Amino acid sequence: MPHLIFNDSFINGEFYHTEKHFSVDDPTTQQSIVTVSDIDEDGVNKAINAAHGAFVKLKATNATTRSEVLMRWYELVMQHKKALAELMTKEQGKPLKEAQGEVDYGAGFIKWYAEQAKRSYGDVIPATDDNHRLTSFKQPIGVVAGITPWNFPIAMVTRKVAPAYAAGCSFVLKPSEHTPLCALALAYLADQAGFEKGAFNVLLSENAKMVGEILTESNTVRKFTFTGSTGVGKQLLTQCASTIKRTSMELGGNAPFIIFDNADLDEAITGLMGAKFRNAGQTCVAANRIFVQRSILDKVLKKLAVQVAALKVGNGIAEDTDIGPLIYPKAKQKVQELVADAITKGASVIGDDKDLGGNFQAPLILTGVTSAMDIYHQEVFGPVASIIPFDEEAEVLAMANDVPYGLAAYFYSQDIKQIYRVSEALEYGMVGINEGLISNPVAPFGGVKQSGLGREGGHQGLDEYLEEKYVCMKI
């Protein structure tokens, strides 16, 4: 792992040092892992210029060449899987087994877009007369800037950078200041794989406002992609409007998880454990509101309580750890405030709610949750399962859809007619049916309503970095 830890931003294939520094801390110990330099305005502009120079060269390359470079990047990531997973656990806190799974998942985007690079097709359009030939083809959009979050510090990067490079675009990335080390390691490996110099730049900074303003207001940057909160996404969209940038936004969610009375309860509980407690609940697609049909409520609570009680909280490096720490103290404080508000308003707790110290939060089940409680409306981003009973299908669909978000939803049912009805009625960009882990590099990831714009993954993810050009030729 030490050979993949770097201290400076990465610009034009070289490390860029500044005198201002900040600490990257281990959320498990709350001790510093390393001190890194904080990018300045000149560095941000240098990265944009380097990306523009790389784009001029990159857009002239053929798809097969870009595909081969991406495959080499994929191979290098997989060769360093162990070191990358350990680095991720160190700076993000998730259990090592989950970190290893994320390396596989993140590498999957690189491999998928290495293949998709060769499948960017145009069209021959039937002409309306004998004197013209009509065609269209796709070209790379240009320099791309992106901001990624801390909860998936490898996958959130590769699913943006890989399709951009496959399309022929260069990239300027600002990773979360809490987890910049994985992004630097990926950029280093991409450079080793043969990325065009300046095609993948990484900017380290605690001053997200400064970096974001320069990237969004730059005329050179033609596409902006962001994964994070809806509030920040709205601000970035406003800033991007001044230069009419293409944008893709993967924003907040408030995922419903519905268990109907005809469901296989053992499968439903297994799916719920993954959808709720993976990464200590710190995922945008985490099950947030768990709706259980009243006739099976007692059975579900009994089975769920056993599973939750068996979860081990601790250092992610330990093989038997199921839940690591939350990312920083304020994250834990938010979860505890949401739990306290729910209890004050009538919710009951199943589980040991003792303070585990540090950034660790005990996994809990809340029963009797209602729409009067803050936890019903906000992303929890912690290992707390909120249980809400319902009686009828129409009732639960109304509750599930009655939020401004529409990222992911889940439901368990064995009734094929109900499966079709519910999957079509849920106002979400992604739906898991009898499955709690739905993310896949070959499928489009994204939401509707205030959960975002655009899609990442699948063949749709490549189109986010391409412009279509129509050609009309008179003959």
Structural summary, described in words:
With 475 residues, this protein is α/β, with parallel strands linked by helices. The chain folds into two domains: 2-251 and 451-474, Aldehyde Dehydrogenase, Chain A, domain 1, CATH 3.40.605; 255-440, 3-Layer(aba) Sandwich (Aldehyde Dehydrogenase, Chain A, domain 2), CATH 3.40.309.10. 39% of the residues lie in helices and 22% in strands. The protein contains 15 helices and 22 strands. The strands form six sheets. It has a seven-stranded mixed β-sheet, sandwiched between helices. A six-stranded mixed β-sheet has the order 9-8-7-10-11-21, sandwiched between helices. Strand 10, helix 8 and strand 11 (246-250) form a beta-alpha-beta unit.
Task: Give a short summary of the structure.
39% of the residues lie in helices and 22% in strands.
> What percentage of residues falls in helices of 4 or more residues?
25-40%
Structural class determined from secondary elements: alpha/beta
Query: Could you tell me the number of beta strands?
Result: 22
**Shape, please?**
globular
Percent strand: 15-25%
User: So, the CATH homologous superfamily of the largest domain?
Assistant: Aldehyde Dehydrogenase, Chain A, domain 1
Beginning-to-end CA distance, first to last residue: 62 Å
Assembly level: single chain
Largest sheet: 7 strands, mixed
CATH topology of the largest domain: Aldehyde Dehydrogenase, Chain A, domain 1
**Which strand order spans the largest sheet, edge to edge or round the barrel?**
14-15-16-13-12-18-19
**CATH architecture descriptor of the largest domain:** 3-Layer(aba) Sandwich
Q: Mind telling me the CATH class of the largest domain?
A: Alpha Beta
